[in-house]
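User: I'm curious what two different proteins look like when written out as structure tokens. Can you demonstrate?

Assistant: Sure. I'll show them one after the other, since each token string lines up with its own sequence. Here's the first protein:
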Amino acid sequence: MNSKKILFVDDDEALRILVKSQLVTEGFEVDTADDGDTALEMIKKANYDLILLDIKMQRLDGIETLKQLRQSGIKTRVIMLTAVTELSSAINSIKLGANDYITKPYEIEDLISCINRVLSR
């Protein structure tokens, strides 16, 4: 099976560990980062098929990370992760070049479905 490589960016360590474990079980190769700065450095060194990017993070947030990705010409598919209270930010992120968004809290099945949908486009 040709596994897809995902970068999961979220400042919640417990969530990173849980989601990574579940995605690996689904056959994905997963790296994690705890903020946008770290993610941008990792993206320079590796090719990812998809980036899962939390909007609200310490230091560099998801919106600014997405802006920097697109400004530097990186076309990697991005799914924004957002709390319901940040829905307008998620919608704005689509205008900035995100491929989709999913609201927190989410069921892992819904996240996997969203990932598969975005990767199949």
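Here's a second, unrelated protein for contrast:
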Amino acid sequence: MQLMMQHIYTVVATLLFLYALVTGVFLLMENRRPQSTLAWIR
């Protein structure tokens, strides 16, 4: 059971990292003002 929970935490952390990465790339690829981009990232 404990091993299964560790795998679940790993999967969730990986998905959150990928979500943040995709969101960051998307925001940087849009031609927004730097202030708007920083506001979205924070």
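A detail about the second structure: The mean pLDDT is 85.
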